Amino acid sequence: MLDFFRKFARLLAMLSALLVLVSGCTPADSRTQDSSPQPVNVWVWDETFNVKAARMASQWYLDSHPESEIRVETREREQILADVKNLLSAKLYDRLPEIIMIEDYDAQEMLARYPGEFVDLTDCLDASAFFEYKTRLCSNNGRVYGIPFDSGVTALFYRLDILQHAGYGETDMQNLTWDRFMEIGRDVYAKTGKPMLTVDPTDLPLLRMIMQSCGTWFCDDEGQITVEDNEPLLRGLLLYQQLLESGTPRSALGWNEFISAFQNGETAAVISGGWIMSSIKEAADQSGQWRMAPIPTFPDLPQSASRSNIGGSSWYILKNARGAREATQFLTTSFSAENTSFWNDLIEEIGVIPCIRDTSRLSALSKEDTFFGGQPVTRTLSDLARDIPVVNYGSNTYEIERILQQEFQNALVTNNYQRCLQSVQLKAEAISTAPF
User: Fold this and answer.
1) Model-level pTM?
2) What is the C-alpha separation between 300 and 337, in angstroms, rounded?
3) What is the DSSP code string of 95-152?
4) 134, 314 in Cβ contact below 8 A?
5) Contact assessment for residue 192 and residue 162, using Cβ atoms and an 8 Å cutoff
6) pLDDT in tens, 364-413
7) Strands (E), 65-187
8) What does 189-202 look like in DSSP terms, one character per residue?
9) Among residues 127, 117, 104, which one has the least CA distance to residue 332?
């Protein structure tokens, strides 16, 4: 009976999307006149999460479109961006994939730099069905070009068994301030030898989490750089300084070291987006030992909240790729907000936190997760995602962060963080006004 309802829901989703497509949501200047389905190539990263979601969507679509061909290729995020930029600049359209995943931090740059190169989905996507903080990032000049996928809603994931060895329980991890988190971290390290976090000197995701949790960013809504007087950013830098001076965080250079640190039980916690759960669960022997709590706050900053975002991505279709028409139909049906049956499958299989406002039909969100000791972690994360502050990521997030990394190293020596932010402000303004 359950299988019948799932098939019926799938049929309804397909019919709804097809009606939209007939009304004009297909690439008007498709490069092929052949009405037969063209192969759809998808470039995406992260085998345990995004790649798996793309393959699940492919199977879902092929069940009712057996004549179609969808190829999912795993590539690194940076490689996808670099290759697509090169191909678009050279107008080598025949070598383009039809679908790419773009991280939200990169979306505004890509849409501004390559106007007319992405399929306009405004008329085949109900943007109001998704959270505003996501749809704004997928939009340019009032038009929507991306289909929101996952929320990067943040949380504190921790090993309860390690904390219990140091005398702490679940109630100790609720309603945390950053000061209290640091205090617990020092105590846990002293008693167990396990650091609470990893720190990558080449990446500063914690700063991004802190800024957005306070409703601010490197720039304002108009794209003007707002680094010099950014109090949450300053507090985040000082927190990083405390972490480094305490000697308690574990150094992890790059993604693989970051992942292996908690999978191998070398750290007691990880603060990241909900998408990290698929990597946490790769260590099957740790089932039942993990718990989740909201991120800490700065109680003296009125705007500081226990919810934020890190990462998160959306799907985009390259307008001049050969199979753009088929790709549009594939994406708008499979990842539609109305396709609740498929979203329930994604929640169960990879723990995705959808960016969908109406979750009343997403029954999988409320299921208890034995890996996290029976906590309904996806429901909690989904509830937190509703209140993520909306900020403008602008077009230069990673470029500005690289500048900040360099200046932060100087500030660690001079202890002059105001000069650090002033220098970042000037350099960020220079790259923000430079033409693409």
Assistant:
1) 0.87
2) 38
3) G--SEEEEEHHHHHHHHHHSTTSB---GGGS-GGGB-HHHHTTTEETTEE-EEE-B--
4) yes
5) yes
6) 999 999 999 999 999 999 999 999 999 999 989 999 999 999 999 999 99
7) 70-74, 99-103, 139-140, 143-144, 146-148, 154-159
8) HHHHS--S-EE-TT
9) 127
